[in-house]
């Protein structure tokens, strides 16, 4: 078939057919010959990306990574993929990274995101670049690599500073650093950005309450890290900006409880100080 003037699409369809018939060895051998036959074709990337896709589907991650690294090398030596093939590869890489992240394999997730990053030009300004950096920052946070997380979010801010998800990532890092002032700034920014429609992130369905949900999550993160002042700030911002009455009522209840617990703690400290002063005068 390859000796005739055949279209690449026909060859790739043949590969898929062989795979569907469980002729894996024959399919990969034929695909290898297809790549060699169309080596000088601008559409070669379509075959290469399919090869990677099939390898990953069959659980051959190591071989898949080798093929990806070959494509990255080619990308910087004049053998770039077509925009369509590159987009397809990015989707594949992010999907693998997301699955590893969900499985708490954070180092693996980071490696797949880094593969994707390899195709972005230095200083490239676009929302996808910002989203990629936010995902990398999440991996770094889980790996306890705070400085690298900050570097990634700095890039995300440069690419897409007006994204509520970027500010949420800034907030998470501030909480990890116990930086109350920085966390408050991020919450204020999230409050302002919540007035605009929020785009989707990581395939999540984003409702009209998405911004409020992020602020609610911000309060939860602060409480988990025993930062009541920051949690109260997040809840106050939520109450000021949410249009969901039930959500506002829940936030107000939490806020009242936090205020009361803070007052009780202050009262206990004052009573303790009074006892200490009394003891000093015995």
TrEMBL record:
<feature type="coiled-coil region">
    <location>
        <begin position="218"/>
        <end position="252"/>
    </location>
</feature>
<dbReference type="InterPro" id="IPR011990">
    <property type="entry name" value="TPR-like_helical_dom_sf"/>
</dbReference>
<protein>
    <recommendedName>
        <fullName>Protein ZIP4 homolog</fullName>
    </recommendedName>
</protein>
<keyword id="KW-0175">Coiled coil</keyword>
<dbReference type="InterPro" id="IPR013940">
    <property type="entry name" value="Spo22/ZIP4/TEX11"/>
</dbReference>
<dbReference type="GO" id="GO:0051321">
    <property type="term" value="P:meiotic cell cycle"/>
</dbReference>
<dbReference type="Pfam" id="PF08631">
    <property type="entry name" value="SPO22"/>
</dbReference>
<keyword id="KW-0469">Meiosis</keyword>
<dbReference type="InterPro" id="IPR019734">
    <property type="entry name" value="TPR_rpt"/>
</dbReference>
């Amino acid at each position: 078939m390859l000796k005739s003037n055949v279209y690449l699409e026909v060859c790739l369809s043949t590969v898929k057919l062989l795979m569907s018939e469980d002729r894996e060895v024959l399919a990969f051998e034929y695909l290898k010959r297809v790549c060699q036959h169309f080596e000088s074709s601008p559409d070669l990337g379509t075959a290469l990306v399919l090869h990677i896709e099939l390898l990953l589907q069959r659980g051959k991650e190591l071989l898949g990574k080798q093929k990806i690294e070959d494509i990255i090398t080619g990308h910087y030596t004049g053998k770039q993929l077509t925009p369509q093939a590159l987009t397809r590869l990015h989707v594949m890489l992010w999907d693998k990274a997301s699955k590893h992240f969900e499985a708490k394999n954070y180092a693996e997730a980071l490696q797949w995101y880094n593969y994707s990053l390899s195709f972005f030009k230095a200083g490239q300004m676009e929302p996808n670049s910002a989203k990629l950096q936010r995902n990398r920052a999440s991996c770094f946070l889980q790996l306890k690599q705070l400085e690298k997380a900050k570097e990634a979010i700095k890039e995300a801010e440069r690419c897409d500073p007006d994204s509520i998800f970027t500010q949420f990532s800034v907030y998470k890092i501030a909480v990890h650093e116990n930086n109350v002032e920085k966390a408050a700034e991020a919450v204020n920014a999230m409050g302002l950005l919540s007035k605009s429609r929020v785009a989707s992130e990581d395939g999540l369905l984003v409702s009209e309450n998405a911004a409020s949900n992020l602020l609610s999550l911000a309060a939860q993160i602060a409480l988990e890290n025993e930062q009541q002042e920051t949690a109260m700030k997040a809840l106050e911002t939520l109450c000021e900006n949410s249009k969901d009455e039930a959500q506002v009522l829940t936030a107000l209840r939490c806020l009242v409880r936090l205020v009361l617990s803070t007052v009780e703690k202050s009262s206990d400290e004052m009573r303790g100080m009074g006892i200490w002063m009394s003891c000093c005068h015995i």
